[in-house]
Write a structure and sequence with these properties.
Blueprint (H helix, E strand, L loop, with lengths): L11 H24 L10 H32 L17 H30 L5 E8 L2 E5 L5 E2 L2 E4 L4 E7 L4 E4 L6 E4 L5 E5 L5 E7 L11 E7 L1 H21 L1
Parallel strand pairs: 1-5, 4-10
Antiparallel strand pairs: 1-2, 2-3, 5-8, 6-7, 6-9, 9-10
Length: 249
């Protein structure tokens, strides 16, 4: 059986708690990543976002272990024993610890600020081989292509950098395809933008991620990422349909 140091000033307490913190951090980090899967994985812009999420998960696991392990260890090891009416040990302030718990969090915040800015820059970068305007309104979406094609679904070719211009007709909405990663607000009276380069074909769901009214929950649209030749055929079909409608008027 492990015999704990008798004095509360014994440095071995810190070694024991340190070991508990490391073990708890590893277990909790693995558990959190298992129960909180990161969907962002099907666009180039999703890579830095997914990485940043994983870093935050490990940071949260460490901070939780740091606080809880010290607290639980103190409650168990330094609890008042039965029939012990003596006064507890007297502690003075510790300048070293006070400096550490002020400077270390500041440094961590600065580091994560830099990482966050770098991640944001990575997600904002991209080409504009394909351009489309996504218009959000209560509570639906409309997609307008430069050649005049208007669609209720967003169709993009795989592996082609796309520039999606975002406009809102009424209130603030938010454009979010979870599998792509980036999220961008649509603000009335201005045009915002989002760069995305889809890596995988398939059908996804566009959601409004900003509470925008009574039917916010139903503000969904289908997003299809298809091979380039299929995208070209779809666009030609839409143009033909549009020309037919114009001629019949």
């Amino acid at each position: 059986m492990l015999k704990l140091p008798a004095s509360s000033k014994d440095k071995r307490h810190f070694y024991i708690v340190g070991g508990l913190i490391v073990v708890t951090t590893i277990v909790l980090g693995i558990l959190l990543q298992a129960i909180l899967p990161i969907k962002a994985s099907t666009a180039e812009q999703s890579v830095p976002i997914a990485w940043l999420f994983r870093v935050h998960i490990w940071l949260l696991a460490f901070l939780f272990a740091l606080v809880v392990m010290f607290m639980l260890y103190s409650l168990v090891v330094f609890r008042r024993r039965k029939d012990d009416d003596s006064e507890g040990e007297h502690f003075e302030g510790n300048t070293t610890l006070e400096v550490l718990w002020t400077v270390v969090p500041l440094v961590v915040v600065l580091i994560f600020s830099f990482i966050g800015i770098q991640t944001l820059n990575d997600t904002l970068a991209g080409g504009s081989d394909v351009q489309v305007t996504a218009v959000g309104f209560q509570w639906s979406w409309r997609f307008e292509y430069p050649n005049g094609v208007v669609s209720q679904e967003l169709v993009l070719p795989v592996d082609k950098p796309a520039l999606i211009s975002l406009k809102a007709e009424d209130v603030i909405h938010s454009f979010w395809v979870a599998e792509w990663g980036p999220k961008q607000d649509l603000v009335p009276g201005m045009t915002t933008s989002l760069h995305v380069t889809p890596k995988d074909t398939g059908e996804f769901k566009l959601r409004c991620a900003e509470l925008c009214g009574l039917s916010h929950w139903s503000m969904l649209a289908t997003v299809r990422v298809v091979p380039e030749e299929e995208y070209t055929a779809w666009m030609e079909q839409k143009v033909a349909e549009q020309n037919l409608q114009t001629a019949s008027k």
